[in-house]
Amino acid sequence: MLQQWKQEINECDSLQKLEEIRVSLLGKTGKITTMLKTLGGLAPEQRREKGAEINQLKENILSFLEDRRTFLSAEALQQQLDSEGLDVTLPVRPELIGTLHPLTRTMEEVIAYFTQSGFCVAEGTDIEDEEHNFNALNIPAHHPARQSHDTFYLNSPDKLLRTHTSPVQIRTMKTTQPPIRILSLGRVYRYEFDATHTPMFHQVEGLVIDKGIHMGHLKSCLGEFLKHYFNVADLPMRFRPSFFPFTEPSAEVDIGCSKEEETLKIGAGKDWLEILGCGMVHPKVLGFCGIDPDVYQGFAFGMGLDRISMLKYGLPDIRPFFEGDVRWSKHYGFSPFISAGT
Q1: Region 189-200 average pLDDT
Q2: Rounded Cα gap, residues 183 and 118, in angstroms
Q3: Cα-flanking dihedrals φ and ψ of residue 27, to 5°?
Q4: Domain range annotation of the chain
Q5: Which residues on adjacent β-strands are paired with residue 252?
Q6: Which positions ≥6 away from 113 have C-beta within 8 Å?
């Protein structure tokens, strides 16, 4: 009897037929259920012996049913996958092709350029502490940037949303021996919001630490990048003295442009446009990270990815960057099949 039922179960070719067999054997009027109902008319000793036999039979049937159900379910899933499969070798329908956000394309371009120049990409967390976001960067306690009107502090003690990607540089210098050449980029947070500022934006910073590094290396590095990024071979550039707590000397970098009515053209012109900040890494910052400033020097620079994206692609307002409007993305976006280096 057991072998016969096992054969019937194994011959089931669908989950529906398997369920019909289960009901015929274990349902309210099923064969095994009926056998259990006859135990009441037997003597106690016989009932115990017969009951154990029927229960063992029931357990075996349940096991056979479960094994067959697992097999049929896997088979049904495979058939579904085969019938709904997508031939990835077919050409993509134009209406299904998405676009890359201008900011994504800018990040790809920046990474592609600097990694080809020997930089490595370093990453960090959005949540930082004051030690790495401010103290290690020689930013004093009374500095306006540390106030709540500029920085987003969290309820957790000493925790905040990073205001720049510089903490990535600090952590790298503390754990890596020079020479160092890294690019850190990602989201940063500051309390500001208008046509050219948002509470969350994107920043890229570069850091080079080695023996004999000087301001000439910094100027050359930035000059070549800006010419490449804006695709202007003869791009005017000037360095204006400035102040940042973490670099000395520090400078603001301007590039040439021409402004006519509401249009802005990057290149030779009578106007200047501030594009980034930079400088030689402050000896105190090197010392905090365990690097001897008498042996090693370095330079650092930082710029807003959203800003240079707006400048290159003629985007007048930063706010649509984060509104998720598909029409905007389709208009300003880029094909994902064209690499950033193309």
Answers
A1: 81
A2: 10
A3: -70, 180
A4: 2-81, 102-332
A5: 240, 277
A6: 225, 228, 229
Q: Express each pLDDT in 306-326 by its tens digit.
A: 999 999 988 888 888 888 888
What is the per-residue pLDDT for 95? 66
Q: What is the H or E stretch that residue 56 is in?
A: helix 44-84
CA distance 132 to 288: 10
- Number of other residues whose CB lies within 10 A of the CB of residue 26: 16
**Model-wide pTM > 0.90:** no
Q: What is the pLDDT of residue 338?
A: 73
Q: Which residue in 243, 229, 320, 233 sits closest to 275, CA to CA?
A: 229
Sign of the Cα pseudo-torsion (128, 129, 134, 138, in order): negative
Contact yes or no for 333/314 (Cβ under 8 A)? no
- Which tokens sit at 335? 């094909």
CA dihedral 53, 57, 60, 65 (to 10 degrees): -160
Question: CATH number of the domain at 102-332, please?
Answer: 3.30.930.10
What mean pLDDT do residues 166-172 have? 96
Pairing status of strand 159-161 against strand 120-122:
unpaired
Q: What pLDDT, on the 0 to 100 scale, is given for residue 90?
A: 75
DSSP assignment of 102-121 equals HHHHHHHHHHHHHHHTT-EE
CB-count burial class (<10 Å; 0-12, 13-18, 19+) for 327: exposed
Q: Residue 85 in 3-state DSSP?
A: coil
CB neighbour burial string for 154-166, b if at least 16 within 10 angstroms, e if fewer: eeeeeebbbbbbb
Which tokens is 292 given? 């001897």
Contact 24, 31 (CB under 8 A): yes
Distance (Å, whole) CA 337 – CA 315: 22
Provide DSSP, 65-84.
HHHHHHHHHHHHHHHHHHHH
Mean pLDDT of 148-173: 92
pLDDT beyond 60 at 135: yes
Amino acid code (one letter) for 297? Q
Share of the chain above pLDDT 90, in %: 53
